[in-house]
Amino acid sequence: MITLILQQTLIITTFVMGMMMVIEYINVQTRGMWSQKLEKSPFTQIVLGAMMGIIPGCLGSYTMVSLYVHRVVMFPALVATLIATSGDEAFLMFSTIPATALKLTVILFAIALIAGVLTHIFVKNKFIGLRKEAMLPLHHQNESCNRYHPALIIENLRQISFTRALLIAGVLAILVSLLSGFVDGSHHLNTLMGATESALHTHDHAHDHSHDHGGEADWIRISMILLLSAILFIVLTAKDHFLQEHLWQHIIKKHFIKIFLWTFGVIVGIYFVNQYINLQDWISSNLYLVLLIALLIGVIPESGPHYVFVILFAQGALPLSILLASSIVQDGHGSLPLLAESGKGFLAAKVINIAVGAIAGILGIWFGF
Questions:
Q1: Which pairs with CB-CB distance under 8 Å and at least 24 residues apart come from 340-344?
Q2: Residues 175-191: pLDDT tens digits?
């Protein structure tokens, strides 16, 4: 059982880290998009905030918080961003419940726009908790991250660094495992989607339940192959600065252990709780209490606690309404710079997030979704 859970944890962690690398690559390549026109259009700011919020991970929210602290965008845009974002947990949702994650993203985007517009109408102070002078520096793109080109492959391999060699070896090892069938996504998915205790203990029962989530399992296997192929391209063509500073220092060293431990801990915890409590029955009988817990946990400016709600939903033990409420309040690490710069702004944004999340959750429970 532990071996199977470890394998599942590694699959999820690999998927999350891979998606974070791609997002980091795209982020670095598309910086410098801001202009003075943004400051003059509150509605454009709100739309931008919602769009940045739905980007998996914390890069979008980090960017909008930085812009808010510098008074480039106003408080309504910040509210829209923090409602739309789910932090690093979005990677987990797209890797385990892709269809629901896509639907949830559309819903969050719509709610974020509405909340942002209403905040703009009713909240007079558009820079809550900010000083007149901005203190948080914006990140400026390093020139050594520019000009990616496939022709760099030969040069990079000729003068290969330890970091590049390690990343290439790791990506190729996982790709070969997937392509050869050594790693079977359907069994590992059933561990997470869990169906039953026996699915964790026996291979045969995993087969019995594979039809329940076969589409998701195929999606995970195919998408992981495509994702790892993209990562291999990035590793082969990127310059050493990007590999060392962005992928290794910012992504792998900073996030890998945390994501692995949170994922492993949640799966193991749910497995052992299921030995004594029928979570699905308990949750269905205590929906409002579970909603309150989800709202309170969402206040924590940390990626990880929200994992439990994603996994419970994936197992069929949690309704979409509570996952939606949790996603609205949850910001991952995106609100940490805001908390450091303006406790008042952080508190104001969280109060609005909780109110919106509670309304969405209660309406969802009333209407049975």
A1: 340/136, 341/65, 341/69, 341/130, 341/135, 341/136, 342/69, 342/128, 342/129, 342/130, 343/129, 344/128, 344/129
A2: 888 787 666 544 444 44
